[in-house]
Write a structure and sequence with these properties.
By secondary structure, this protein is of the alpha+beta class. It is built from 10 helices and 10 strands. The strands form 3 sheets. The protein has a 4-stranded antiparallel beta sheet. A 4-stranded antiparallel beta sheet has the order 5-6-4-7, with helices on both faces. Strands 8-10 form a two-stranded parallel ribbon. Helix 3 runs parallel beside helix 5 (63-74) and helix 7 (149-158) packs antiparallel against helix 8 (180-189).
Length: 249
């Protein structure tokens, strides 16, 4: 199982998202602001903004909060200016890590990343040190209980998806980045709730971690995911189910 989907499964089991609603809102506000700045405040003309608005509504974010974030992005209201950046790192056991951030202060963000990595046995890497190990893909995860395979496969392939994979508890839909929005819309038209939907950096090869190294890597991923400036964090680690259970104990 891939490191990316493995980490998604771990977060789901930990129930971390429900316990951190405030942080989810903070990240969504940043996403809304950046999307509106990049593509305008009309969701009908800005697919990225439309997707984030849907995510915000799914998290029960108040409509006024959504509107204010968009207006900040379009310059209609004053507010903090965020910028996107990507950083690379090595984790325990030599696992590769890519971190997408939204920040209003790169110096602060780099300091926080370096501190977190060092604390958990990782190190910040130079640009392109590990990025070549990953491919940018549209990535949609759907719990098997939420969708019929044949119906889902027909809809996503017709919409331009490259593949539908069986990942034990989930269906994983893979697309080219430019086809992601159309495929995501096709899934939503079926009334299917997604567990995850994003433009992801998926590893092309995996590194197996065990024992203390695996546990250190899981702690690092969780610590990085807790940072306010982190949008997404990906890695190419693979671990056994027993390591997940140990991390939950």
């Amino acid at each position: 199982m891939s490191g990316h989907s493995k980490w998604h499964s771990i977060k789901h089991k930990k129930g971390a998202a429900d316990a951190k609603r405030g942080k989810i809102f903070t990240r969504l506000i940043k996403e809304l602001t950046v999307a509106a700045r990049a593509g305008g405040g009309d969701p009908d003309m800005n697919p990225r903004l439309r997707t984030i608005i849907a995510d915000a509504k799914a998290e029960n974010m108040p409509a006024d909060n959504i509107k204010r974030a968009i207006r900040r992005g379009t310059g209609e209201e004053p507010g903090v200016s965020y910028e996107e950046a990507q950083y690379e790192a090595y984790g325990p056991g030599g696992a590769a890590v890519i971190m997408d951030v939204l920040t209003d202060n790169k110096n602060r963000t780099v300091g926080e990343l370096r501190h977190t990595l060092t604390k958990h046995g990782g190190t910040l890497a130079e640009t392109n040190a590990v990025a070549w190990m990953f491919a940018k893909r549209g990535y949609i995860v759907i719990e098997k209980s939420k969708a019929d395979e044949e119906t889902l496969m027909a809809a996503v392939l017709d919409a331009g998806a490259d593949d539908l994979r069986d990942d034990e508890d989930n269906w994983e839909v893979l697309t080219a980045p430019e086809a992601f929005q159309a495929v995501h819309d096709a899934v939503k038209k079926l009334g299917i709730e997604t567990a995850s939907a994003e433009i992801a950096m998926l590893p092309q090869n995996y590194i197996k971690l065990e024992g203390k190294t695996a546990q250190s890597m899981l702690k690092l991923m969780e610590a990085l995911d807790d940072l306010d400036d982190i949008r997404h964090v990906w890695s190419n680690f693979d671990i056994e189910e027993k390591e997940i259970e140990a991390s939950l104990a």
